[in-house]
Amino acid sequence: MNYELNDEEQALYDRVKDFADQVVAPAAYEYDTKRRLPLEIIAQMGDLGLFGLPFPQDVGGQGKSYFQLCLAVEALGRVDQSIGVTLEAGVGLGVMPIYRNGTAAQREEFLPDLIAGRALAGFGLTEASAGSDAGATKTHAVLDGDEWVVNGSKQFITNSGTPITKLVTIVAVTGEEQRADGSVKKELSAIIVPNGTPGFEIGPDYDKVGWHTSDTHPLSFTEVRVPAANLLGERGRGYANFLQSLDEGRIAFAALATGAAQGCLEEAIRYANERVVFGANIGANQHIAFKIAKMQARVHQARLAWHDAARKMDAGKPFKLEASIAKMVSGEAAMDNARDATQIFGGYGFMNESPVARHYRDSKILEIGEGTTEVQLMIITRELGLAA
After folding, report:
1. How far apart are CA 5 and CA 234, in angstroms?
2. Could you say which architecture CATH assigns to the domain 240-383?
3. What is the CATH number assigned to the segment(s) 121-236?
4. Which residues are catalytic?
């Protein structure tokens, strides 16, 4: 396995890194305090072609690899996780399901704006009692003539309520099968619900610990009617199709976490070389130096893990195990590096204008979103053939 970037990959990473440093980073604190997604920055990301990276040119994409998308997510995550996850979720949960499972008409209607970054889309799976346990889904969709009638609710849905959000794809129960043992198997299907559809309500943005710039809302559906043609993919395959996107999304999520860990490392090195205490830079203190050395080791491990998973995915090889390892390792690396960087900064690290303070607040979700650390451990043990 070659972990070196080729010239094209390096050029992309450098280009997005420069954009992150020059455009995203200077605005990060302002938008974090306003708790608002900077649409002008999203538009610039669209102009750079970031939302179209892994899609072929014949649908308006850049014709690049999924690996290259992850490089862009990592570069953004260094300075602002909210912007990084907006790209990660916008592509993986917004565009990818429609590109992969949509009809020709659905793709023609929705892909151009989504791939260009002119619009965003969300994916509604999680509910109050359903997420990792999709079988507990309560949102229902009943076919009434040539329309689906949707009732239910979703929570924690990214990119669902921005001024440029065009649609949310939801997973709903579209039927039930009585099994011989008396249990009920739910038929789960994916349905496209355009924003603005009567009965579709977007709740207030959450008051989150971190990711203040990222758009996240609860959703409710009351007698929402959409055309039967809004079924995305085969009926009954909604959750199964989502699982594929989820496995892929864990790699991009790992890249985001690696970027966060890298950002904390860079800030810690800079501060350790600048901060003078008792006549010497604090980086000369072996305790500080060793802490930073461990931070570098975590970044290296996390990056190797997501590179391995992404390369295997792009090569068409099985990658489920590697994706879960990458997601778990990188999430822990981000949280540990954020904690250590904040400690190195001391009182300055406790001030919200400090990048490490924002990473400290933001990084906890990296151990929860896209499947908790505990879920990743379950997947890993099952992939190893253990009954856990």
Report:
1. 38
2. Up-down Bundle (1.20)
3. 2.40.110.10
4. 370
Q: How far, in Å, CA of 227 to CA of 329, rounded?
A: 43
Q: Which residues fall within 8 angstroms of residue 1, CB to CB, at 6 or more apart?
A: 308, 311
State both tokens at 87: 């790209």
Please name the fold of domain 7-119.
Butyryl-Coa Dehydrogenase, subunit A; domain 1 (1.10.540)
DSSP 8-state assignment for residue 49: T
- Do 240-383 and 7-119 have the same topology in CATH? no
Q: Is the pLDDT of residue 182 over 70?
A: no
Whether the pTM exceeds 0.90: the reply is yes
Q: DSSP letter at 372?
A: -
Q: What is the pLDDT of residues 209-221, one digit of tens each?
A: 999 999 999 999 9
Q: Residue 63: count other Cβ atoms within 10 Å of its Cβ.
A: 14
Amino acid at 185: K
Strands 280-281 and 200-202 turn out to be: unpaired
Average pLDDT rounded to a whole number, residues 325-344 = 98
Closest by Cα among 116, 113, 200, 202 to 159: 202
